[in-house]
Amino acid sequence: MKTYERRASVRWLAMAMTSLGVATAAAAPLPPEPPAGWTMAGDRNDAFAVVVDRDVRHEGPASAHLACQKDEVDGFGALMQTIDAKRYRGKRMRLSAWVKGALGNGHWAGLWMRVDGPGSSRNTLAFDNMMDRRIQGESDWARHEVVLDVPEEAIRIAFGMLVVRGGEIWVDELAFEEVGHDVPTTKPTKQHRHEPTNLDFEGGQP
Known about the structure:
It is a single chain. This protein is mainly beta. It has a single domain (32-179), classed as Galactose-binding domain-like (Jelly Rolls, Sandwich). The chain has one helix and ten strands, in the order αββββββββββ. The strands form two sheets. Strands 1-4-9-6-7 form a five-stranded antiparallel β-sheet, with no helix packed on it. Strand 6 and strand 7 form a beta hairpin. The longest helix is centred in the first third of the chain and has 25 residues, at 3-27. The model is unreliable at 2-28 (pLDDT under 50).
């Protein structure tokens, strides 16, 4: 075979292999992306996926479907947003949504909200993930809420939904809104003390 023919054959083979590789990659399913404006979080978010579901919904055109991709994991997956707290300082805020669940034994889900103060994200001023009122088992659409105060020193607010250990939930009609102080909070806000307290340990249990 002449030199130019060998070179042409090599080029043709390389092009054919490249085309095959592109076709194979395109055929592989891509991991679902979170809905616009949302990010995945959690210590096992690699095992969870969220999609926009236009078939299962409470009201409107779609819901968010957060599901574990394994039978069970040691951890949780979450969908979240983080916003600046400046405009919400001094207010009482409620995160509410309609949630439908399909959760196995030992699995649970909830809405969650966290208010952070200055410094690291560990400076948490208020937090609630519904751990004490978990969404469990097979549950039809029901409204759930988290209500927290936002102190004047708050820097950011994070909120969303989570699934722990396994299972799936659908979330619809999510709302983040100010409420009056006649609406009770679901968790107390961390208060900064200005004076020592209970120095003789006789103040009873918290």
